[in-house]
């Protein structure tokens, strides 16, 4: 399977509330607040064959799969 057959998925940098936009190409797929949300968003877009934490098809911007500042216990107000 050629890499060009899969869309380039981007998990954007965290917003102020810690949520992250998920896009594929020019298409907005959804908003994730946790890694499980990314998995579900990709499943709903029929992209669930992508290994979320390990795939080169996902561009994690502003932090990796474990970076969800909205979930931080050290969150400051």
In short:
The protein has 77 residues and is an alpha+beta fold.
Architecture overview:
The protein has one helix spanning 35-44; strands at residues 9-11, 20-24, 27-32, 58-60. The radius of gyration is 13 Å and the shape is globular. The chain is α+β, with helices and mostly antiparallel strands and 77 residues long. The model is unreliable at 73-77 (pLDDT under 50).
Beta-strand percentage range: 15-25%
N- to C-terminal distance: 47 Å
What is the strand arrangement across the widest sheet?
A: 3-2-1-4
Structural class: alpha+beta
From N to C, what is the helix and strand string?
EEEHE
Oligomer kind: single chain
Q: What's the count of strands?
A: 4
> Total number of helical segments?
1
Mean pLDDT: 85
| Shape assignment | globular
Largest sheet: 4 strands, mixed
Fold blueprint:
Blueprint: E1 9-11, E2 20-24, E3 27-32, H1 35-44, E4 58-60
Parallel strand pairs: 1-4
Antiparallel strand pairs: 1-2, 2-3
